[in-house]
Amino acid sequence: MKKLFFVLGLVSILLSACSSSDDMPEASVPEITLDSETGIYTVKTGRQLTIAPTYRHVGEATVYVWTVEGVEVCRTPSYTFESETPGEVFVDLKVSNGGGRSAQEELRIDVVEAEVPVISYPEAEKGFTVVVNSDLMLTPDVAKTSVETTYAWSVDGEKVSSEKDYTFRPGREATYRLKFETRNEDGSDTLEFEVRACAAENMPLKWVFDRKDYNLSSGRKIRLAPCVVENASSGVYTWTVNGTEKQQGSDMAYVFAETAEGSYRVEVTLTQGDRRLSELLTVNVCPKEGTFRRTASAASRADFDKVYSFLPAPGQFINEGYSCATAEEAAAKAGELLRAEKYVSLGSFGGEVVVGFDHSVENGGDYDFMVRGNSFEGSSEPGIVWVMQDENGDGKPNDTWYELKGSEYGKPETMQDYAVTYFRPRAAKMDVQWVDNRGNRGQVKYMGEFHRQDSYYPEWVEGDSYTLRGTCLAPRNHVENGIWINGAYDWGYADNASTTDMAEGRKGCNRFRISDAVTFDGRPAQLQYIDFVKVQCGVNARSGQIGEISTEVVGFTDCHLTK
Fold first, then answer.
1. Alpha-carbon torsion 334, 340, 341, 343, what sign?
2. pLDDT (tens digit, 9 = 90+) per residue, 284-325?
């Protein structure tokens, strides 16, 4: 028996010695094995991440110290992290055992945005009114995600579709409650709205006027009309001036031709059956042309004097490198960029900038002023040019705009009175949805690979939608040998690589004639001079990976003061 006890004791001593030299904290340096081979972890905003390394050569007296950006956050073997802010976070882990030995590891946590499938459908938020037994195509935009997203439509609580887009056809007069839901592993979103279905004769009359006050010089005419009319296929329009009826019939437009100076009260009434709309307009007949002319002097500058307004359409360069909270700040920023000879992007169709000179630019019969852009062969993004006189003499561009006729004016494919309404996205980094007054819809695509600002919708626009109107040219963009080409137009447009009106020795500088100004009916306006110039992006198109066609301007110059 004594021999057996001796052997067991010897084995016990040997095992104890092995443990002390390999596993006991007082004899060895702690070993840390992270549960990520690269030491880099990824977590989405708002989610918890638990980092749980495995350890060797540690015991009850071991101290674990976790620090984030130099600040101690935890003293346990594992650490649970959470953040609402995207970005890189650096974490240090120090482990000290009872033997005074220590080890340290540095790791990185990449916090990325959670990919919640946010719904953006501003058109639906106020509901729809449709004719019974007609189709209503519902096409919400949903924020793009890399994870699978499911969709669900329900009408009055009954599920009707699992597709993103849904065509609703009401079969009776009623008010329906529609619900659209999106869901993925990161979250969900819901949109609910009403659809009112009624007979055609009960559809509500709607119209929109882009302005209510008009100024024009004595002896000129102006066309007055709503820019949008809905559900009035057989309506009757009655026009009165200072209480006297001037016109009645199916023509929604009225040509105002009073010549005596003064302010006129113009009222238009739309009647269809029992439905009725009225709108009151004011037309100010100002002194004759030339009364407020400002002849250039030796002190006059050739270049523009002031940016009066800057209202771009959404686009990949909008809000990039600048931040504006108000329209005044936006105009000031555009002026700052132009004076530094840097480009101002007008975004997609209809985006505009308005400038004025410190003198009246004379109509010399040939080229009178220049607009500099950044066009070159294969990259034309044409801007329609408009001019205005200060007809009421208040120094502001609030009078009558006259379009400068270019090579595409009057062609069947050129659209006059074209309008696009843009909608603010509900989440960052989303496409901007648009609809036009021809029944089309589309998106200004988010180009996050190159232009990563949160939104392409002008941040100083207060409303959740806004409408831009003007002349729209047929696009000339196409692909050649795998490369997008934005073709040039013959003449008459800003930021257009024309061989006809490009100023010699001035890169990207198009020249314009005041004598090309036309009235609302296409006749020569015969302006003797102008005070203000507006450039407006004149194409609604996208060139693949290059993005939307967007007019850029760099400067405005009076040709007569450069000679």
1. negative
2. 999 999 999 999 999 999 999 999 999 999 999 999 999 999
